[in-house]
Amino acid sequence: MAVLDADEAAALLDEGAPAEEHGRPARKPLSACCDPEHLAHRLLVLALMCFLGFGSCFCYDNPAALQTQVQRDMKINTANFMQLYAWYSWPNVVLCFFGGFMIDRVFGIRLGTIIFSSFVCVGQVIFAVGAICNTFWLMEFGRFVFGIGGESLAVAQNTYAVSWFKGKELNLVFGLQLSMARIGSTVNMNIMGWVYSRVQDLLGSAGYTTLGIALLIGGVTCIFSLVSALILGYLDKRAEKILCKEQKKTGEVIKLTDVKDFSLSLWLIFIICVCYYVAIFPFIGLGKVFFIEKFKFSSQEASAINSIVYVISAPMSPVFGLLVDKVGRNITWVLCAVVTTLVSHNMLAFTYWNPWVAMSLLGVSYSLLACALWPMVAFVVPEHQLGTAYGFMQSIQNLGLGVISIAAGMILDSRGYLILEIFFSACVCLSLIAVVMLYFVNLLRGKHLHFLLPLVDMSV
């Protein structure tokens, strides 16, 4: 928060402003809901921050929630279906490096958030129109546009969090934002099939028109997030004037030349990240039909169990975040998460046990890994390289997701679900090998990844 100099303070006092307090001219008292420093107002801002990503996360998994309908109505195989996820990932192979730069130097946080929210809305509309017109390449283009906004919007969301919340509050705020994102994904999984059925009843038949209208209805959530971005931008600008504060930066200083200086520990973290997440998101993208075909679930039951990973992640992410903060030993937590995920995939592949058990374990391990893995980057790179490291980590994660999404669709078309599950298990095994290697590298280099992460005031 900026502090006025003596001349400015004197000028305000001359105009009848209240006396100074704590080095800043006191301002006219405001009601709780209107005062940017009051808890009630900050809670309103927090709610808007959480809603920023709701629409994006809701619509990201629209294809998974409607896999049967998309493949049937658009007359495509699984490999083409998974292109809808690949096209979301492709722009983010590059934009992970430049999203923060555009917010800091080009648009500013407020305009940048509105622009990225608009990309999400426009992308979802193009996606839906592609279905209505029975044009699959237009649907792919819509997902590409959607992807341009989706990941960059998450950067903007985190920047707002840093601007409004400080110190220990920040961990809780990030956890709440992640929880709302997972709630969006969960609602999508469980409601889009119902929306499609209601549209089908209204039109009298299934088909690509029904699919497109259902996707347009789902896009209303993106408009809701855009409205949240507009209101949040107004409140942030108002607070900037009242509190005389400067806009916060993302803190992401990207220098691609830093890549050559990355340590072995950091490269192992990258491998863990890519090999783990490619066994989660593509599986969820294909999971609904898997549960229908192997376990003979109804469409509604399959949607419910496919969303259990997100259901568990919503409340558990903040809890695990606090746990890891208190206990430390990040490598141990990551090892537990990877092993549990491997057990889950093997249960789904080789047994007919109730899949609720395996999916619940997957949800717990997914939440735990996210809380333990990503902070480890801060242990192994200097602060001035953090932006580059995180940008590169997100970039190769999206590259891996794009490639594996296509590969998973091809494997399913040609080999079936058993071989696909073995493939996902192999990816998790690679992640496990990287965790073990990281453990021994860590022992040789001083056990830094077993220490508690120091509390850093990210608002500075």
Automatic annotation (TrEMBL):
Residues 42-445 form the Major facilitator superfamily (MFS) profile domain. It catalyses: L-aspartyl-L-lysine(out) = L-aspartyl-L-lysine(in); L-arginyl-L-alpha-amino acid(out) = L-arginyl-L-alpha-amino acid(in); L-histidyl-glycine(out) = L-histidyl-glycine(in); L-histidyl-L-alpha-amino acid(out) = L-histidyl-L-alpha-amino acid(in). Coiled coil: none annotated. GO terms for molecular function: transmembrane transporter activity. The chain crosses the membrane at residues 43-65, 85-103, 115-138, 144-165, 208-235, 264-284, 304-324, 331-350, 356-380, 392-412, 418-441. It is a multi-pass membrane protein. Lysosomal dipeptide uniporter that selectively exports lysine, arginine or histidine-containing dipeptides with a net positive charge from the lysosome lumen into the cytosol. Could play a role in a specific type of protein O-glycosylation indirectly regulating macrophages migration and tissue invasion. Also essential for liver homeostasis. This is Lysosomal dipeptide transporter MFSD1.
